[in-house]
Amino acid sequence: MNDSDYPAEIIERAMTTRGEIQLQRRGNDYEIISNGTFLMATYNGESERLLVRSALQYVSQPQHVLIGGLGVGFSLQEALLDPRVEQVTVIEIEQKIIDWNKTELADVSDRAVEHLKTRVIHADLIDWIGNTNEQFDLICLDIDNGPDWKVFEQNHSLYHESSFCKLHRLLQPGGCITFWSANASPVFAERMEQYFGNVEVLDVEQSHGEPDYIFLSRKLEV
Predict the structure, then answer these.
(1) Got the DSSP string for 63-100?
(2) What is the pLDDT of residues 158-186, one digit of tens each?
(3) Rounded to whole angstroms, how far apart are CA atoms 201 and 189?
(4) Which of 25, 127, 32, 43 shows the shortest CA–CA distance to 70?
């Protein structure tokens, strides 16, 4: 019996400005549910790790990393494992997810949010990228469920030209950008390629359901 097959035990349920968010446990694993829709779990984190790992292999000096979406901390933990990384900035819109990563979920990522190289910012990524002048060697985004299946419709613009222009400005020459998605999206890959260059699509098989996907592109050096 896999942990995902155990009945759910609700740890905490809270109302936010974006609706209801819930942390629940199945066996030894945890799940986060938003407005009744599954968002993430601790038993299927390979694609969240690959979101970062796939980008790290293409950048010789990935000193500064931007991660959009904290989740259960897998992507952050993966970035911190690379000794070349000097700072990881994580943008997370839900304060409850930040809190849970410091409490119930802390050991899942080896307390990655408490690492000296970690900077967690409670903000809407779409707003934040339009108001910062920082630049990053890696930008790794795991927002909602990807370009085609969104829990929050306001995340739509992240996967279109208005946000691509901002992200391109934040990405250092020679840097790498990745997007996580719960489904294949050839249209998104084509749109992304117009702004960031050649796009590589990686699929990650899941024990239940369809694969997860990573869209990866490298910004040309000047």
Answers:
(1) -EEEEE--TTSHHHHHHHTSTT--EEEEEES-HHHHHH
(2) 777 788 889 999 999 999 999 998 888 88
(3) 8
(4) 32
Contacts (Cβ under 8 Å, ≥6 apart) of 99: none
Q: Could you give the CA distance from residue 219 to residue 50 in angstroms, rounded to a whole number?
A: 19
- Report if residue 116 sits inside a domain: yes
CA distance 202 to 108: 24
- Does the structure show a pLDDT above 70 at 17? yes
Residue 110, both tokens: 């080896």
> Is residue 87 in a domain?
yes
Name the residue range of residue 138's domain.
44-218
Q: What is the pLDDT of residue 207?
A: 67
